[in-house]
Amino acid sequence: MEEEVKILSEQPAEPHKAGFVNIVGNPNVGKSTLMNDLVGERISIITSKAQTTRHRITGIVNTPEYQIVFSDTPGVLKPKYKLQESMLGFSEGALTDADVLLYVTDVVEDPEKNKDFLDRVAKEEVPVLLVINKIDLLKNDTELQELVDKWHERLPKAEIFPTSAKEHFNIANLMKRIVELLPVSPPFFGKDALTDKPARFFVTEIIREKLLLNYEKEIPYSSEVVVEKFDETEGSIHIMTVIYVERDTQKGIIIGKGGDKIKKVGIEARQDIERFFGKRVYLEIFVKVEKDWRNRDNKLKQFGYLE
What we know:
alpha/beta, 6-stranded mixed sheet
């Protein structure tokens, strides 16, 4: 009898869920901020400038019950050179392999910006969650309701989530809905994985963030960072990197008078890299000219933008 009671009291375990949740949208609407908030780690670089994300960046959330593989993608834009064509390819690719699609907009964006891409989102068969970010900038609930109504007309099949990633508003409800929509599946990555990107990738992203923050105009967008050496020991990491630019004048601007500008970038980047890896870092940065690299297939392939 005791054995029978024991058997009846056991509840079947819920099946494990796992899926790919891809984040798409136009530049500068807060996709990277949202990604970091959902993952709970600083995976994507964040600045106030548009086009900070160049690759698809993966952040993985694990619990015993589920695994969510988030992908942050470059902002959708009309390409002006081959690098931007590759960036658009990353965003368009995110429409083809998602289990759940997060389309991120904000409170000031025109819904018809990049209409062709939005038309493709409207035709998606997978669940689409429309995230209206930065609602902390609105004055009242009436403005919010008008926005929700406008976006509902544009993407009638989408579920709408007004949020503020910066203020962490409504993120928990968004996350709860994502988990509900995940398909039943075993995990795609190890349960201790945070990303599918190698350590070197995050070094380049941290340095590129410092370029975006410390230089104006075209300089950050004409620059690419490559890790030439990454020697890790138990207590420290020795890293040698190269910043590639397109013109000699850009090289001079990045280095600065007496090397003051590049020294500042190096100090700020080293501090963040040490926080990221939890180790002492010795960082070397060199600057080289690679003319018109953004339009050269061989260089885009070398830098990881083309297969």
